[in-house]
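Per-record layout

source: Rhamnusium bicolor
name: Nuclease HARBI1
length: 110
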Amino acid sequence: MFAELRSSGSEDLNNYLRMSEESFQLLLNLVKPFITKQNTRMRSAISAEEKLIATLRFLATGRSFEDMKFTTMISPQALGVMIPHTCKMIYKVLKKEYLQVRKRLYYLKW
């Protein structure tokens, strides 16, 4: 899916994911170790790239998992497990640098 978005132009990619290709690649590199699963004999695992694209699209649009199955080609049941897990991993990798927890002194000032 990412290859199709990339080939259609950066404006389409920015519109679909609500971020630049560079930001997407940076985020993918950070979360990939935490969301990658191994292929089995029974089935191929959903790639980290597909998981991140589906998660970002869900966060950007708020569409239901049932509706997203048509654009992602992933079952609503799998989306229901995959998206919350990917969100947790995004939070895990970004929280130290981008999310600051206020100290107790901050609250005492007010």
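summary: The chain has one domain: 2-109. The two ends are 49 Å apart (CA to CA).
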